[in-house]
Amino acid sequence: MFARHRARWASCLIAVGFGCDCGGGAPPSDAVPFDVAPDIVDFGRVALGRSAQGALRIENQGLGSLAIERVEISEGIRAEIEVRGTPAGLGRAGLADLEVVFTPTQVGTRRDTITFVVDGERFDVLVLATVVDPSLVATPDRIDFGRVVVGAVATATVTLENRGQGRVKISALALEMGTSSEFVATLDNVTSLASGESLDFLVQYAPNGAGVDSGRVVVADDGEGVDPVGVALFGEAITDELEVLPAAGLQFEGVFVGETRTAELELRNVGSTAHEVTALDISMFADRFSVGLDPGEIPFTLEAGAIVRVPVRFAPSESGAFATSLRIESTGLVDPIPVTLIGIAVQVEPAVARFDARLDFGTITRGHATPRRFTITNGGDSSIDVRALRVEPPSAPFSIEDWGGDRILVGRDAHTLTVVATPSVDGPVAAELVFETDEEQRVTLTATATSNPAPDLLLEATALEFGWVPRGDAVVQRVDLRSVGPVPAEILEVAVSDPAFTVDAGTLPNTLLPGERAPIRVRYHDPFRIDGTVTATLSITTTDPDPRVHRVRLSATTIPPTMSAPAVEVTLTWDPPTADLDLHFVRLTGGRFDRPGDACFCNPAPVWTAGGRSEFDPRLTTESADGAVGERLVMTTNQDNRFVVHVHAAEASVPVTARVEVATRGERFDVLQRVLSESEAWTVGDLLVVTGQVYEFAPSELAPTSEPRDRCF
């Protein structure tokens, strides 16, 4: 430590003062004037799952500046120690107070070091600790009561469990010094717990003045040398106030120019006196945004506890992104409430019918009904009204099946129909397939009839989509070939262009009698490929002269492999059970989707037709997703990402206590609890997942926040 350098340096200065030769008047080159105290930080006994704090002071005792090159923590405690407040250097006579935080990850003793490297020299601090299993564990270990009106009371339940080996005596239940007096904790007639036993106690938040309140309730026990278990408390007291949901405002995305989109703001009087709402004004872009209330409906009175839903419209006349603010004024507000409105308008792509301009039947047998598939696709955003579909001339030997009269094709929709050729004479024949929409469109139909019967095969599908497939898993789909000619046809050979796909076509060659079908099964199994989309072509060689080779497009997307055990589980329960709460699990790097369903999972390219259903997304399974008892999200694939967990009180006629539990492979990682009112949204916290395990969970302390429906519903 610096103390030894200081003594040598001081003796030299004294010698110089008396004219002695001490090797020159400058201090020794190895005497770095740095001191750190104390040189031992003893955390004593620390319970697993809790943190302990220590303090260090570093000091420059020299005349020049010192550079603190780095702080090294020995490997044994590197993941458990955090040194806070270390500066990059110290000026002349400078000093700094540092905080050392110890958060143990396993039981056992610690004897390790923290090393400060200063101007090339090392200064060690010894770290001592004994980590023990806690006897008492409180669940949850933090409670956020959210926003509570002054005069009201919010209640939460804490479970206290003895996980030690012996009986533990409960010696006291008290609020820690500095805790707001608005919190009250009560424990009824229980003085001790045997091993494995548990009890519940109540914590109430009864604010008597506006502001943010926090603190900690402490349960003291007779456990040896371990700090008492505590539960962190948070709450925000409000008086006469209007609450606006969603708090982040409204965002209108993907609205077509000329379209009108409507969304609702919810105004809630969370105070104790009536409000008269006097104005709902839009600051700019009033030609695009508007409030859906008649002028005579403003002002209006909002009684205490009442809710009014205000429709807001976005009707863009040009494409672009527009942002403005809705200003809410009320006699009960000190300042007006600004609400953000964002609209993103896109130009409508006109409806356009897309199809092949020619449908060629090739050479077919005279007098035999030969079918061919034909697909019409609407490539635009608006609808196409197909008022009629006919063959010209009517005497041509072509007919239409699977149409069923006039049809409206909405944007990006498609319809496949069957056109049948039944020529009665040999030779070429031609006609036109006519579509009557806003304009008349035509498709050329051609065929060549022959008296010599020929095999003819009809492919039932031209593409197979395998969707999301976890690496190492296998998915099988099938495509059928149907013999539609008057004579038997043969399947000679089947091949696929990518080894990730394998084909089972049965014994080849395979002879199909007229009217028979042959199922060809395609299996996708890709244990080695890097995650991503795989495309290939299935080629089927037959005796059908036209075409000789039938082709099917194949597509699959490989995703991370399924775990042998659930990687991450997030469970939501609530009380009373008559309420309906929704759990939302949003990947931060994902996009925004508007999918129905209580439980949901967002990813950049979802493969589902309804939210929260595992059969449409192999990354997610849910239980009781209808909100009857609880909701549970289980992620079984190795997704490395950061997620946000939300809870939304969809239906809650009375305040409801929400409880969220986060677990990794069956081991509970964290439990949080909060009281919610109807339509209130709670951002529970951020979840960092690395290699299929919870690496970090950072809970939020206060909120509500914007409704998760804005991001993923």
Summed up:
With 713 residues, the chain is mainly beta.
Radius of gyration: 37 Å
The proportion of strand residues reads over 45%
Mean pLDDT: 79
N→C terminal distance: 60 Å
Oligomer: single chain
Uncertain segments: 1-29, 589-599, 601-628, 702-713
Major β-sheet strand ordering: 15-13-17-18-11-54-53-47-51-50
User: Helix segment count?
Assistant: 1
The percent of residues in helical segments reads under 10%
Largest sheet: 10 strands, mixed
The backbone outline, from C-alpha atoms, is extended
Provide the structure class: mainly beta
What does this structure look like?
With 713 residues, the protein is mainly beta. Helices cover 2% and strands 56% of the residues. It contains one helix and 56 strands. A hairpin with a 6-residue loop joins strand 45 (532-542) and strand 46 (549-559). The radius of gyration is 37 Å and the shape is extended.
Observed structural traits:
713 residues; mainly beta; 10-stranded mixed sheet; 5-stranded mixed sheet; 1 helix; 2% helix; 56% strand; disordered C terminus
Write the layout of secondary structure elements.
Blueprint lengths: L1 H16 L16 E4 L2 E8 L4 E9 L5 E8 L7 E4 L4 E2 L4 E8 L5 E11 L2 E12 L3 E4 L2 E8 L4 E9 L5 E8 L7 E4 L5 E2 L4 E8 L5 E11 L7 E10 L3 E4 L4 E7 L4 E9 L5 E8 L6 E3 L8 E3 L4 E8 L5 E11 L6 E10 L6 E2 L3 E8 L4 E9 L5 E3 L1 E5 L5 E4 L5 E3 L4 E8 L5 E10 L3 E11 L6 E3 L3 E8 L3 E10 L5 E8 L4 E4 L5 E3 L4 E9 L6 E11 L6 E11 L8 E8 L4 E8 L12 E2 L18 E4 L6 E6 L5 E11 L4 E9 L2 E10 L4 E10 L2 E7 L14
Parallel strand pairs: 2-9, 11-18, 11-54, 20-27, 29-37, 39-46, 48-49
Antiparallel strand pairs: 1-3, 3-7, 4-6, 4-8, 5-7, 8-9, 10-12, 12-16, 13-15, 13-17, 14-16, 17-18, 19-21, 21-25, 22-24, 22-26, 23-25, 26-27, 28-30, 30-35, 31-34, 32-36, 33-35, 36-37, 38-40, 40-44, 41-43, 41-45, 42-44, 45-46, 47-51, 47-53, 48-52, 50-51, 52-55, 53-54, 55-56
